[in-house]
Structure formats: structure tokens, C-alpha cells
């Protein structure tokens, strides 16, 4: 009801949203109840009120920065009304100019949009569009927005004549139109794709990348590679290395993935160029079918030495000692790929490294045992007695979540037990509780083993009979 009273009163009473006590003080200070007219807003009223407005209480013609008609009409409607009046005035002036030109038979050249802007904007260089086309916090003398004026004005603006004095809001509208045209042209000629509306064309994957994705999908392995090593300009050793992985990739990754039991990484080894060249020379002297995969487990601390000098045979004045014994001779011990658990027993360190080696062997399979040239064959391993026949091509490491020195098996959810069906008794069935003593508060007696007591009594009776 107080709000309606404020709407009916003219001028409106501001501060209707404050508390009742503050409202009474404000009414008394505004002389609404017979007080002296010289009495103004007290300090407490101004300090407590939320919508105090202005402190120029002595000026009866000043109603604040929003004007006297703030509540009945919004400022935007007032601005639109004033714009209509300005448009009608311009139309009247244009019609008067046309009548004068028709009577005097003089050709008054009509200025185009660009020409008029060049001539008249020299006087308005300091005019900002933001000061004339504003929101609800702007001055009341100009238009709120260009779109409001263009959507609400019924008559289109005619070409301006040189004799017509320009208005500030007209200059602002023309400048806004020119900036809109420039923005539209820039949008049409742009070459950068819009990420919200246009999708970036994905680069097609090569055959090697598709193969690596297949290994990751089937064996939980992340293959690290360099695009330069996969290009045609790569070295001879790099081409041989990636061709080796394409040929034996699935047979290598399957048992290694079972050994790790979690996600693992396969990356090329940073071998020294001398080690690479020594292995390439050995490959050139052998058949293509002799290149086979093998596994070698080692400590993580030995990787830097292996990458610098290659896999070496202990002794031979190279400073390497036999650590795990040499039952079948001093050489380079490697396990068959399908016996990866043998190599996992010798890999130590936080990452549990496992070297995927390329070996040159004339025999295939693990059925043969004995000696053949520079290779010795045992149950699950091969021992090479020439260093150039073995080269570590890839390094397999487990993820950080893998346990140190143990095979991690992925956890499986427990098997669901038998489902017990809940028996639903009807309401009319009454379950009788057995009558008996209440809850037992004493401890139960210790249970006696009857079998031992019977054996004791039997022995005692036998002694009595003998006596």
C-alpha cells in the first residue's frame, strides 16, 4: 500500500523500500505532516536511508539525477520519445528546404554519407560514440542505442543537405553505421577459423601412428616416438628399429603386458652411434630372417652404461663382473619373448626396466638345446658369445603405480555371492517369540573336551583293574 501511495503522490516520495521507522523520519523531514518548510533532511535520515537520492533538500525543483518522472516511465522510454521529436524536426526542416529549392529553382547538391561525415565531423572529433549511445546510466539528451533508434523510428533518414545543422546523435549514428560496415567486411575476409562454429580439420594419421594406437588399445602400452625418426629422412638404424617393431610388435607386447599387469611405456633406446653401427654391420652380413626379438632384464642403474657401450660380455678387460652367475658360460643372457617372466626376475628399480633386444640367430623356436656357433640354447633362454649379435632396441618400463620388484595384477571386483530372497510374511501371521530368561549377563562356562575326559577315565579304569 505504501508503494501505491508513492505512485499516486506527485512528486513521488523516494525511499519507500526502507524500514517503517526510517520512513516516518523521512516524511517528517520532507514537511509532509505540517512541519516547518525550512526543516530539511536530518543527518540521521540521510545516513540511514537506502535511497537518499540527493542532499540538495533546499532546492524544490531538483528531484535527483533521474528526473521527476522516473517512476511512471523508464529513462529509455523518455530517450526514445525525445528521439522521435528530433526526427520529426529534421523531417520538417527537410521539407521546408525542398520547398525553397523548388520555388527558387536552385539545385542544392545532396551530400552522401561519407562526404557529409568528412565535412561535419571536423567539428566533432572529440565526440565519442560511447558518450552518445549509452545504457541506462547515460545523460537524457541522447539516444540509448543505435539499434533502439533504428528499430523504433518509422521514417528513414533522408540525405542531409548542407544547410541543415547536424545533430550530435546523428553523427554518432553515422559513425556507428560506418564501423558496422567495416566490421562486416573484416568478418567476410577473415582467414582464421572460428573455433565455436567451425571444426579444425584433424591431421590424418600415418600408418605408423595407427599401428601404435592399435598396440595401446590391445596391450595397454604407450609407445613414445619422434616424428623425425618415422620420416623418410631418418637414419638407417631408425628405419630398421621401427620396422622391427612393426614385425614383432604384437608378439613382444603381449607377454610383457602380462608381466607388468598395468599400463607401461615402450620407447626407443638412445644408443651410441658406435653401437648402432656395429649392429648394422652384423645385420648386413646375415640374412634378413635371422633378426629375432629377445628380452634382457637388468637393473635401472645399468641403463646409462648399456646405452653408451651396449650389452657387453663380463670380463674381457671391460670392468664388468659376473653378478648372477654363469652356469652356461660367460655371455649375454637373453630370454625368449614368450618367457618374459624369466627376464622380469632380473629387472630391478622403481620402473622395472626391461630391454627389448634385436638378436641375430640362425635357428628359430626354442625346441633346440645345445650349442650352435656363437649361441648356446637352454630351456627358456639363449646365451650369445659375441657382442655385435645383440643390440637393445627398445626400453620397456612400468608406470609409477606399479610395485617395485613384483608383478602387479589388475584388481578384479569380488564375485557376487548368492542372492538371498527376502521372505515376506503377511500381516496376519504373528511370529511367537520363545519364552525364556532375559538377556544373559554372565559369561558362559568353558567348554570341556569330552574326548580327552573319556580317554582319561578309560586310562584310570585300566590302572585300577591292573592293580
Explain what this protein looks like in three dimensions.
This protein is α+β, with helices and mostly antiparallel strands and 467 residues long. The chain folds into three domains: 1-72, no CATH class; 75-188, no CATH class; 207-398, Phosphoenolpyruvate Carboxykinase, domain 3. It has helices spanning 2-8, 20-29, 43-48, 75-104, 113-120, 129-132, 146-152, 168-188, 207-219, 227-230, 236-260, 273-284, 303-309, 340-344, 450-466, and strands spanning 221-223, 264-268, 291-297, 332-335, 354-360, 370-372, 375-377, 381-384, 390-398. It has a five-stranded mixed sheet. A four-stranded antiparallel sheet has the order 4-8-7-6. It starts with a helix and ends with a helix. 19% of the residues are buried. It comes from Symbiodinium pilosum.
Structural features:
single chain; 467 residues; alpha+beta; Phosphoenolpyruvate Carboxykinase, domain 3; 3 domains; 4-stranded antiparallel sheet; 15 helices; flat
What letter string, H or E per element, gives the SSE order? HHHHHHHHHEHHEHEHEHEEEEEH
**Do you know the CATH topology of the largest domain?**
Phosphoenolpyruvate Carboxykinase, domain 3
CATH class of the largest domain: Alpha Beta
CA radius of gyration? 49 Å
By CATH, the architecture of the largest domain is named: Alpha-Beta Complex
Number of strands: 9
Give the integer mean of the pLDDT values: 71
| Beta-strand percent range | 5-15%
Structural class: alpha+beta
Q: In the residues, how many domains can be counted?
A: 3
Distance between the termini: 120 Å
Low-confidence stretches: 1-17, 45-55, 126-165, 401-414
The order of strands across the largest sheet is: 1-2-9-5-3
How large is the count of helical segments?
15
Major pleated sheet:
5 strands, mixed
CA-based shape: flat
Protein name: MAP3K2 protein
Organism: Symbiodinium pilosum (Dinoflagellate)
